[in-house]
Structures are given as structure tokens and as C-alpha cells.
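Hi R.,

Here's the input for the 6-O-phosphono-alpha-D-fructofuranose complex you asked about:
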Amino acid sequence: MTATTSSRPISLTRFLIEEQRDKQHINADLRLLIEVVARACKRIAISVGRGALGGVLGSAGTENVQGEVQKKLDVLSNEILLEANEWGGHLAALASEEMDDPHPIPHRYPKGEYLLVFDPLDGSSNIDVNISVGTIFSVLKCPTGVKEPDEKAFLQPGTQQVAAGYAVYGSSTMLVLTLGDGVHAFTLDREQGSFALTQRNLHIPEDTREFAINMSNLRHWEAPMRRYIEELLAGKNGPRGADFNMRWVASMVADVHRIVCRGGIFVYPLDTKIKEKGGKLRLLYEANPMAFIVEQAGGMATDGHGRILEIMPKSLHQRVPVFLGSKNEIERVTRYHREAAG
Ligand code: P6P
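And here is the predicted structure with 6-O-phosphono-alpha-D-fructofuranose in place:
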């Protein structure tokens, strides 16, 4: 009698079919949306993986709405995601860090019920030096009755997300996804050309000894931020009674992926340099999707005062402070900020 059970991991497609058929967590359009985004991320992974041989490193010579110089791969990744998602009939509109305004679905294609908002290539300043970068995406429902979604249709709190995920283009290419029922990781099988489920229900430990922050901004931080970090740096002889370690990739996807895998905290607080902008990271396509994933993995995500997912967006490219990761540390640093605010 030979064993018939396969030890091979299941594919993303089979995972999504089971989420739709067996758990009714998603419908056919959302399943198609996730598969289309995953396929686009495979194409981006190929371009990123070619490095200097692909002729797509360096600057595109243009700036995005943020006033940031666009890398050629920023523009290419954005185009790949637009082309992949325009024709499927699952979306009502798209929005991106790289585009000033939402991108309408061309009239020659049918519209669907979902809105997709994304950062096509986060951390792109690291591309030219071969450090991991990633794609971050968030899925919302288009408000009922809105036939031509404009910016206003996207201005929904993060609690309204129906799915979120990121692809991290590192030593392996991984897709980390939540549909609102846990966080699951898929690894790109380059021979098969498909994502295989490699971890179900990732969990962020409530405690950690690892923090991620850009320490060069210390002199610009508000008092509660300095208090929290100085306590960590004081180590086992300080008020925390333990030594802490620091990591900072300067690629949010890479830093958050490490936290989702083994715990830690990621902090990009307000500082005097960016205070008038509201923060560094963008709410709709960086903070919200990552906050959804982190909360679904048992972690916590605040802006220093309240849940990121409850922030009511005022504009498409709004920025917010971000504190996310291991629950007990985020509770502590958020308490320090609340106490300082009185
Ligand atoms: P800094 C990349 O540009 C990014 O948006 C995030 O991916 C990253 O966490 C952050 O900015 C890095 O900022 O100030 O350290 O360069």
C-alpha cells in the first residue's frame, strides 16, 4: 500500500479556492484579485532579480507625488500592477504611491466591486545596493453606488480592508497575505513559477528584545520617543532590566517581514523634520496594510496614540507615524506617548 498523501505544500491557487469554497472567506472576484496581484509580483520579482543585467537600475529621472525621485523599477513595477489588474473585471479603480490620483478602469473593460491601493516597490532606495525591497497592497470595497471612484472612495479606515499583503523580494521571494483570518506565507517556487504555502497562521510573540528605528533622527524625536529608546539602550542595568538589539534595513517590507516571522517592533515616529507632513510613511498603502497583517498575526499597530486601522484618512497620500509589532512593546511605547500628551 503506497502512501497517497502528498507532502508537497499546496499552491496559492488551491489555498484561495479552499478559502472561497470551504470557508466562504472570499468570493471569486477577490480570489481573482489576489491571484492577479501575486502574478504581477512574480513579474516584479523577475525584474528586481535581474539587477544590473536588466537595465532597470537607477533613477527614472522623474519625481512622484511625494516629491521623491522615482527609480526605473518604481515606474516599471507600477506599470506591471496596472496592466495586470485593468482587464479582469474585479476592480473599480486602483491607486498607487507612484500616481497623484486614482487610476480608473478603462471603459473597454468591466468594473468590479474592489479598490486596490499599493506601493509598487517599497524601499526602492535599496535596489541599487541589492538590499531586499517589496510590494505592499491593500484591498477595499468600492462604496456602493459609486460608479466612477475618485480619491474620496479610497478614504476608508483600515478596518474596512478585506485583504492586505506584501511581497518581499529577498533571498527568496515571499508573499505574505491576510484575508482577515490569520496571516499566511507563500514562497515562490521558481521552477514551478508559482507560490507555495509555506506557513499558515504566523504569530508575532508578545514580547521582544529587538527594535527597528532610524536612530539618526534621535535628536528630532518627541520626549516620549526618546524616553522609550533610551530605556532600551540602557539595557539590563537600566529600567527595562534587559539588553535589546537593533535592526534597521530602511526597507519597511524587510523590517516588517522580520517582525512577522520572529517578533520585534518597527517605529517611524513623528520628528521635528517631518512633523508638518504628518509622518514619513503613507497611511493607505504602507501603514494600513501592514497594520492589518500585524494585528491578524497577534501584534499591535498604533500611531503613538490610537489604532492605525481606526484613523479616518483625509487624503490619498496622507502620512502617519507608525509603531507596530510585538504587542507588549507597542502598548508600552503608546502609553508613554499618551502620558506625555496628558
Ligand atoms: P529612512 C523606504 O523609502 C521607506 O518608505 C520605508 O520602506 C522605510 O522603512 C523608510 O522609508 C526608511 O526611511 O528615513 O530610514 O530612509
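One thing worth noting: Residues 28-50 form the longest helix (23 residues).

Cheers,
M.
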